[in-house]
Structures are given as structure tokens and as C-alpha cells.
Amino acid sequence: MVVKLASWNVNGIRAVMRKEQLHPFLAALEPDIVCLQETKAQQQDVDLALDGYEISWNAAEKKGYSGTAIFSRMSLGETVKNFPEDVVEKYGVTGDAYGNPNNEGRIIAAEYPAFLLVTVYTPNVKEDLSRLPLRAKQWDPAFTAYVRRLQERKPVIICGDLNVAHMPDDLANPAANAGKKGFTDEEREGFETLVDAGFVDTFRMFHQGNGYYTWWAPFAKSRERNIGWRIDYFLVSESLREMVVAADIHPSLLGSDHCPVSLTLEIP
Asked: What DSSP character marks residue 223?
């Protein structure tokens, strides 16, 4: 069985719909499962009808902010939203001056026969790095512990906007951005803990080198010049590696400052 997944930080689903870019995205990739980040909307505020897709929605308590969603042609069943309470307590995910990230609709986990799927919108550390302590000391350790726990049940797929460029090839100007938002040692180490936990960056199974980006700053014609960052990922448990037949980014699909990424699995 071939399963195609797509993930996209839409930077506001209502904005993407106003631009009439949601259905072209679905038509172009024909995904069985769609994961969205930064939906910025309550489900009841979105006039969305997608034939054949079941929907799980996790909105932030703060309106117009953050949020995630899963659209699935495969039976979705019950989903789990946000960190479990024991993970929150153990890792002190209680928030900071910006709020509590566990109330920001940042995680949805769904179970399928062959894998568990987690879509995530990782907190941005801010230009002045004022949210880096929360990210490094609370969020990243909690997230790694959570997906490790899920991995004990069955293989896991992680997708979404992880808000970090893992390696120098994952951004156009690594030297100029060293130590800055999205490319601090702490954020990169947080990503590395996922690698150490047995997760594989699927895009790098097929594509090496720089020039492959998923986010571009909305100024200086950054997207046209391809001066970007690769911060949107599909990671899979090592046990799924042999089932991965394709992993791509889709910069030609417009509607957001991010582009969609996709993963194709062939499941026995």
C-alpha cells in the first residue's frame, strides 16, 4: 500500500483559502494525509469542505494564533492533542511571558495501522531569543520524551515546522545566521536529540547539499532569489526507513511564506 503525506505551514488557513491556494495544493500532491501548521483559526470559523477527508483540529486558546490540523482520507479515529499532563509536569512545560505552549494548539498525534503520526508547530524563539529558554529547557526535551514514548508502541512519523535549520546546508547563509533565531546551538541540539532517538530526516535520504528550502523571509525577494531556510521536515523512525520511497519539498506551490513538504511510503 502506498501512502502519501503532505505537511504545510499555511501561515493562516483562511489566508490560503482567500488566495485560492488550498485546493491547488491538494490537487497537485493528492495526499492521503495532510498535516497543517499555523492554521490561526478555530475550526468553526473556517468554511472548509473537503470531500473524503476526516479532520482533526487543534486550535490555540488565543484566537488567530498558532494551531495545527490533520486531514485524512485514511480512517483517523481518536487523536491526541498537546502534551500529556505527565509530560507537562515532568518537563515543566508551563510557559513564559508569551504564554503556555501547551495551550497553543501545537501538537496532534494520530494512530494508523502501521505508524503513529505526530504533526507539530514548534515554538519560535523570537528575534531576540527571548523564547529560547522555553524552547531549550522545556519544549524540546518534552517533545523528544513524548515521541520516544510513542515509538515504544509503534513506528512514528514526525512532521511539521520545527523552526530550526539542523545543518549548515539547511539555510542559504549559515555563517551570517550562526547563533541567531532558528540556527542557535541550543535549537540545533534539540533537533539532534531526535536524531539520537532514532529518527531519520527523510529529505536527506534523497537530496544532499544546499539550495533546498521551505521558508523564505517576506522581503528582499528572498523566495525569488531562493535565499531561504529548510525548517519543515518529515522525520521517521529508523524502522520505517526502508518503506520511504520519496521525500520532497514543493517550492512552486504558493500561498504561504512556507512551502509544502511531502513523504511517500510503501507499506507492505
From this structure: H
Is residue 121 among the annotated active site residues? Answer: yes
Tell which residue, 214, 212, 202, has the closest CA to residue 245: 202
Which residue type is seen at 121?
A: Y
CB 232 within 8 A of CB 224: no
d(CA 15, CA 242): 37
Q: What pTM did the predictor assign?
A: 0.97
Of the candidates 214, 238, 241, the one whose C-alpha atom is nearest the C-alpha of residue 228 is 214
Q: What's the whole-number average pLDDT of the chain?
A: 97
CATH of the domain at 209: 3.60.10.10
Number of domains in the chain: 1
Average pLDDT score over residue span 124-131: 98
Q: Which residues contact 44 (CB under 8 A, 6 or more apart)?
A: none
132-191 tens-digit pLDDT: 999 999 999 999 999 999 999 999 999 999 999 999 999 999 999 999 999 999 999 999
Task: Please pick, among 161, 170, 232, 248, the residue that the annotation labels catalytic.
Answer: 161
Phi/psi region, residue 44 (left: phi>0; alpha: psi -120 to 50; beta: rest), is alpha
Q: How far apart, in whole angstroms, are the C-alpha atoms of residue 155 and residue 167?
A: 25
Write out the residue range of the structural domain in which residue 23 sits: 2-266
Q: Which of 91, 121, 212, 233 is catalytic?
A: 121
Q: What are the tens digits of pLDDT across the range 15-55? A: 999 999 999 999 999 999 999 999 999 999 998 888 899 99
Whether 212 sits among the annotated catalytic residues: the reply is no
The string of DSSP letters for 57-95 reads EE--SSTTS--EEEEESS----EEES--HHHHHHHT---
